[in-house]
Design a protein that fits this description.
about 525 residues; alpha/beta; Aldehyde Dehydrogenase, Chain A, domain 1; Aldehyde Dehydrogenase, Chain A, domain 2; 2 domains; seven-stranded mixed sheet; 15 helices; globular
Amino acid sequence: MNPQTLESYASGRWTRGEGVESSLVDPVAGEMIATASARGVDLKRALGFARKHGQGALRALSYADRAKLLGAVADTLAANRAKYESIAIANSGNTKADAAIDIDGGIGTLKYYARLGASLGEARMLLDEKPVRLAKAENYQAIHLMVPRRGVAIHINAFNFPSWGLWEKAAVALLAGMPVFAKPASSTALLAHEMVRDVIAAQVLPDGALSLLVGSAGDLLDHLTSDDVIAFTGSADTAARVRGHRHVVARNVPVNIEADSINAALLAPDAAGGGAAFDAFVREVVREMTVKAGQKCTAIRRIIVPEGKAGDVAEALFAKLKNTKVGDPRNEDTRMGPLVTRAQQAAAFDGIRKLAREADFVIGGAEPPALDGIDAGKAAFVAPTLLRVKDVKHADAVHEVEVFGPAATIVPYRDEKDACALVARGGGSLVASIYGEDQGFLARMVEGIGPSHGRLLLVEPAIASAHSGHGIVMPQCNHGGPGRAGAGEELGGLYGLRFYHQRLAVQGSTDLLASLQAQAAALH
């Protein structure tokens, strides 16, 4: 079978790039399934087209009208779901359960914002705060309004979520009234390509509202204006290059970053073995290590446990991990597939070796596992790998090295203060989860580790089997984190619209401001 040639959708038409910039590979068999290139695509023209046609059409619509567009996109994707599942298995090495998180997560986010947008009605701007008086005269006041920016939303997405990463950003930007110019990671771009092709074919969006760049970014950033925005998900190194790009800096282009994150799961001192909190902790760690083969920016990397319970935790995790069936995701009994590429496999093994200098292996290792019927020389598998720090005081790698794969490390703590200090050494994370029965301890952790995180999941017996999960990003909640995680914010319900709007203070008479308020929808 000849590899498929992916095309970019720019300036209102599908365009094939020159030559081959990237090869997309089945990470089980090592076979090439597609090629991608954006070489020769006129990006300046494409952005101009999006600004003129896409931005113009979207801005003319109300929030409720744009919400209907999101609903139509979601319906189009849902109608083609079976095809997307096959692509996720072949290109990303996803199991069906992994594929569901990505595909259904994208569709679900679109539907959520479609419902949320409908609640904003026919407004075309948002009211951020109530009026405030500025002087002794009661009829002189100010309000803060948010109006859609006059530009294009540049979305640079990571390889691990080609569906969710695309649509969670696009849903918010389109609802806000900004056209989307999406750049998926090349190695897994087949899913994003097919989804966008189906949406374009369905003609459910105005011309220019959605563009797709498949291949290298080329000189894309050179053609941005101060009206545009960039939302980036990926490595910290690439994020630094995007944020520091000379043209981005010169034009003060707003940039939202979601980068590296060495997330933690913390077991409370009162969580006894066999109890609901302890069992929920073990289940969640195993799930986060193995779902999508640990290739989630929100996955648990550090397992912070009381010193006296480190052995019990190691035994409980070992018992579950040793029974995790690793193999071809096309097999029904497979619970964990490969990493997406051999390059990612090599990077994961390199990181595991760095961790192993300061930790002992409980299970797994830094070599490809032997699997029946699979050529280790072509596949990209990494076995579930659990380590345990030897000397907590002198262990640095566990707080600095993110292994983007099925690996996590047990780190014992002495007391509550020590636990907070250890979690904070991650330098800023997207999420941490805490498991215990003492609500006082859980509440203190919010203040103790909250400044280092964008989201906290507090698991007590009452929700031990009901919560959505440590690593599952819900559109109602903030997604982002400080420091190492990029200092960005996405989603969070209506809050996510802020990035795509200009917030401005409007000063004037009480009557005039009242008329403006009547035209706006309340953000809160």
